[in-house]
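Appendix B. Chain record.
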Amino acid sequence: MKLFFPSLLVALSAIAVTSTTFAADPQEDRAGYKDYPGISRVPGFILREYGDCVETAFDAYGFWVTKDGKDVKQSVEGHKFWYRYRLKAGLPQLSALQIMRNYQNAARSAGGQILIDKNGFTTIRLNKGGKELWLEIHTTVGYEYDLTIIEKEAMKVGYEYDLTIIEKEAMKQEVTLDAAAMASSIADTGSVAIYGINFDTAKTDIKPESEPAVGEIAKLLTNNPTLKVNIVGHTDMVGDAASNVKLSQARAQAVINLLISKHGIAAGRLIPFGAGPYAPVASNKTDEGRAKNRRVELVEIATK
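Structure tokens predicted for this chain:
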């Protein structure tokens, strides 16, 4: 039985489960439940009960990690998967350590890192299929959750264990400011930041999913016929600063071109400006911060 990748075989001398025995056993996975692709379970465990397998398109999870000799929680956002594996009846239990070591050894063989290794749980980070994965294997949850004594003991001796996986990624922006909210922000501060106008990396073509945000800008300008704005492009600090300034200028012009060609806004009301990475609103040290810095901003051109 392979746990992560072909290079590592899971050695479990305590149990021997063949595919034939597993298929014939009345205790099997609940219909529709299956492992995360490429990361199998410890042999002998099943996803049996309702709720043992949960997938969330975007969520956050606090993973325990060791930093500077201290154990702290680090929040990671992205596509979340959660599994509770339960030992099939009649099989000898495993120790929490044996479960953890199987995942840790498999991760190390694939170039992964063990970020914490404590009694009953471990946090692992690795790259797989172009994705950064964070995993927590938790076999002793009694100290954090309100479990009965029997449940705590069951977890300690390996009757069940939890596996949490986050595919780290920034959230796809789906909600944009409407024209009224844009107008309110401009009236209050003279500008408004627009998220939801998306481009491929280092390119200026506006993605089709950006239309709702561009449409609300057009509505704002249509409803306020005297309003003139600078369309300001912003980037993060990844790459050369001069190239980012040029890129942000071109992206601002792309937004203007779309407002003119598709929505009939007069060119004289729109002026492009590329700020590049020079006006961040968040730290560029994190994915979340860089996502906030990549934006389009409308700045009112005040008239007397």
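Further analysis of this model is presented in Appendix C.
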